[in-house]
């Protein structure tokens, strides 16, 4: 299935997005570039080979992944420095998004080698679109650590960050991750999105507790999974709450320290809390 045209390429590194499931989601420009470069750098030549075969592109592929990146990078930089035209692709989606390639791009830029991007399919943003959760602010956390202790540590660091949170997860760890999310982040709205753009694409939207119960009852699904979790809700504090918090802090801290401490906990203006702490200290 030839869908590309012959183009003249300048030397440099081309970051090319590939489909995340449906092969027809690739862009025409991506096909032009893949057909025109000297060779293609990819994570797994077997997976990328299927893509190239589908579009009848015959091109040399070089494996570049977490296991061999340090060894391969020098050779790739040498070829690029000598005027090579190289495409970097991942197994699916945008290169560098939870995939190797960052250090190669950084070194290219340091050496003055041209780098450009061909945007396209992207699992985190597609999942966010389908989640039904706010998309004006969001953060992508990639894959969380495989063990609960490591996951919880990362989750605690992101617990108060405003905006939706997007996470990659494997099917075997889905239930454990949902359990840790519920424990650390509370019962927030969430969506479990799997098999994006494929025949069995599925989105389950509910609270973390209900999603956890669902998968504990039914078992973890198959396929590639993205979890989108709603933002932390800001707690409302009345004056009595603030007086109590400041009074407790003032037992061991100065007025300045107490107001700063409570401001950090409540995300309220430090100046307002300082004035309230001053009144408490003066008995008013």
Mean of the pLDDT scores? 93
Cross-sheet strand order for the largest sheet: 3-2-4-1-5
- Named CATH topology of the largest domain: Cobalt-precorrin-4 Transmethylase, domain 1
The main sheet comes to: 5 strands, parallel
Task: Report strand %.
Answer: 15-25%
Q: For the record, what is the CATH homologous superfamily label of the largest domain?
A: Tetrapyrrole methylase, N-terminal domain
Counting structural domains, the number is 3
Question: For the record, what CATH class of the largest domain applies?
Answer: Alpha Beta
Question: What is the string of helix and strand elements?
Answer: EHEHEHEHEHEHEHEEHEHHH
Q: How many H/I helices? A: 11
Do you know the CATH architecture of the largest domain? 3-Layer(aba) Sandwich
Low-confidence sequence ranges: none
Radius of gyration: 25 Å
Question: Per the principal axes of the C-alpha atoms, what is the gross shape?
Answer: elongated
**Beginning-to-end CA distance, first to last residue:** 80 Å
The assigned structural class equals alpha/beta
- DSSP E strands, number: 10
Helix content: 40-55%
